[in-house]
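Example record for the data management plan.
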Amino acid sequence: MDGTLVERYAAPVPRYTSYPTAPHFNAAISATTYGSWLRALPKGATASLYVHIPYCDRLCWFCACHTKQTRRYDPVARYLTALNAEIATVAALCGSRLNIKAVHFGGGSPTMLTADDLILLGCRLREKFSFARDAEISVEIDPNDMDEPRFDALAAIGMTRASLGVQDFDERVQKTINREQSFEQTKAVVDAVRARGVRSVNLDMLYGLPHQTLDSIAATTEKLLSLRPDRIALFGYAHVPWLKKHQTMIDDALLPDAAARLEQSEAAMRLILEAGYEAVGMDHFALPGDSLAVAARAGTLRRNFQGYTTDQADALIGLGASSIGLLPHGYVQNMPATGEYERRVLAGGLATVRGFALSNADRMRGWVIERLMCDFAFSRCELLSRFGEAARAVIAEAELLAAGDRDGVFARSGNRFVVTERGKPFVRSIAAHFDAHLGQGSARHSVAV
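Corresponding structural encoding:
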């Protein structure tokens, strides 16, 4: 691909796991606001829960998550006491009315919890909320945490999907990012969860890391494919040292440029597709029978803070420090600092410190951006059907973008506006044309390729 084209579309833009994106959240959305939004959820509404554990026993230098390293369990135990208090407060406001369709335990490292605490947390959630019989329970697993009691605990809480970060199996790359994890460790975890009945395994890998080459990417991809995961996420490393100070441990000079990042991505993608996986959105892949691939083919794929998902719930409720939730009214985010989070919820309150109340214009542009990110297209007629005359402004923007396209990346095709095959690697940059908030404020983003 033309290097000039790559450079033109590689400018930093959001990843669009929400719209508006998190830097635009504001303090006008308070705990009082969130409480009223929770109380307004109707009886029978469906919801998903995201439970954040903001601790790791090691700090990976590439990580951009809200987490902190600790070698002691005391801070984790204190945090769990506060988390239980928040669960009780939220459940008192809406728990009896909701039907929980999915739970995602993220971090940090949820598997840093002891086996007993994992089971107690799972029980606490089921005591306070009404779970659907087929609720999906997904857990992010650090292989370095795992032992037999933890595997048994994950089975006891009903885990249906295990998610493991591979990043890269090359030892030199692993040492440079402070994430040493052998193929044998990873395989042992995959085998153990499958032996306990887990029906879906997701593996994440990264490109754009220091010391990565096309050969190392290919070797990692081949090893990963040998485990035959149900889903694969192929993420570009987001280098944001101005946000995550530990990323300063990674020398900028060791990072590949935009053209090399795209080459790495495409090399891994070719191997994954040749192995029989289907592309899902811009950076996910799934076996043809997996629900993610089915949703992509059906046009029902969604995107949230965990990436691509089949989740169609009416609300996403975030629990834990820094967690983000989405309700029909808008977004909410909890206090990121664990000490202040604990103080607020142990006092019987909610921990919300910011968010965003959605306007109809936000919902409309958010729908367009989500469809572009999920389907690489959106329908002019469906946009008008959903949002009425207000949609004509966005349609006019799309017409101008398609008419002015000289790179062959975006076009009108009958009733639809589509991102072309040539444009798919740059879908974030194309979606950014419909972001009315982009450029407002001082937010900085990672490169788009």
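Summary line stored alongside the record: The chain has a mean pLDDT of 94.
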